[in-house]
Amino acid sequence: MRIFMTGGTGFVGTTLSRDLAGKGHIVTILTRPGEVIPAAAEPAMINFLTGDPTLKGKWQDEAARHDVFINLAGASIFSRWTEKTKKRIRESRIATTRNLVEALSRGGGSTKTLLSTSAVGYYGFHGDDTLKEDDPPGTDFLSTVARDWEQAAMKAVDYGSRVVICRFGIVLGRNGGALSQLLPLFKRWLGSPLGNGRQWFSWVHEKDLAAVYAFLLEREDIEGPINCSAPNPVRNRELTQALAEALEKPVILPSVPSFVLRALLGEFGNVLLKGQRVFPERLLERGFIFSFPTIQEALRDILS
């Protein structure tokens, strides 16, 4: 298949594009003018096209020639949120998605597939409740961004396209993501739970996430939202203990108080202190098998 990808040079995009190219797909990655392409993102079968996904442009005509669109673009949420930051988080996702759908609509009537990213933050904060794909969105900032992001992607249905919304848990892998922030702390004996440590952490191994995309490309009967997270979410305290054991670095520091996180990170602190307990019901119902269903198995593989 000919696959067009936004966000393809990031942590998730690099892993996914290499995996898809390795399976024989021709992948085109949209890169911003002046963007440095990491060496890990340059195997054969991967092409690069210059353009700004938040702006309309000639890149849309080239994109229209592809069969599958994978939308991974979006500014990082991992910072203190100012009004300017919030605007960038929102517009980077929604403007990109709208422009990608417009490009898809130029495909001359051929059937297209759009695999568009969202996040488990869609559901908001629900304590110990188990959240599945048919649960409604929350009302906090990230929930409303995810809701509008998904609605922008679903507009592709109007052009006869199959749309799958991939709601990511926190992606764990070797070369970036959450572990790149956590590992240096734990290796220096500085790892500790956040707040009371009872908040849920919904996660997925990068290899399983790549396998989900390959699965979705084969299963054309699957549409709508899919929770891309492992079937065994863990509490923050369990994650802390599992990571400490995997590194053989015992947890010796007390928990980071909630008020400290909120003072440092503002509204974003709630994302770390509350979390979601998400279950991948639709993937499991359709026969997808996770290679790394538990946090211990995932960390053992990543840290080996």
Descriptive overview:
This protein is an alpha/beta fold. Helix content is 38%, strand content 17%. It is built from eleven helices and 13 strands. The protein has helices at 11-22, 59-63, 83-105, 141-154, 177-187, 206-218, 236-247, 258-265, 269-273, 281-285, 295-303, and strands at residues 2-6, 26-31, 46-50, 68-71, 113-119, 130-131, 162-168, 170-172, 200-201, 203-205, 224-228, 234-235, 277-278. A seven-stranded parallel beta sheet has the order 3-2-1-4-5-7-11, sandwiched between helices. A two-stranded parallel sheet has the order 6-13. Helix 1 crosses helix 6, helix 3 (83-105) packs parallel to helix 4 (141-154) and helix 7 packs parallel to helix 11 (295-303). The relative contact order is 0.14. The model has no long low-confidence stretch (mean pLDDT 93).
How do the strands line up in the largest sheet? 3-2-1-4-5-7-11
Number of helices: 11
User: What fraction strand?
Assistant: 15-25%
> How big is the Rg?
19 Å
Keywords:
alpha/beta; 38% helix; 17% strand
Concise description?
By secondary structure, the chain is an alpha/beta fold. The protein contains 11 helices and 13 strands. Strands 3-2-1-4-5-7-11 form a 7-stranded parallel β-sheet, sandwiched between helices. A two-stranded parallel ribbon has the order 6-13. A two-stranded parallel sheet has the order 8-10.
